Sequence to fold (121 residues):
Amino acid sequence: MQITSAAELLSAYTKGERNFSGVDLSGANLEDAELSEADFSGADFSGANLSYADLRYANFSEAILVGTDLSGAILTSAKAIGSDFSNADLSDANLRNANLRNANLSGTDLSYADTNGAIGI
Fold:
């Protein structure tokens, strides 16, 4: 199944799918979405809206999140090794125990983010 829209992603997630590696959802609106434990490794979320999304334990390794709005998102224990968060908005995000080793955080807004226990920040 090829995911091409936010609606398709949410539908597949609701049906129990968790492997969304390599998906291209650049510019998608997933504000307030429940997507914990999903695998988004290698995915492209450039310019997407993931504000206030529940992304606990999600895997964003090698994902592209350039300019993505992740303000207020819950990324507790998420894995984002080698991801590109350049110019992303992570203000007020919960990054407790997240692994951002080798992630590109240039220009990223981390104001008021909870980075307690996070790796790579």
Summary: The chain has one domain: 1-121. Helices lie at 6-14. The CA atoms of residues 39 and 99 lie 14 Å apart. The longest helix spans residues 6-14.
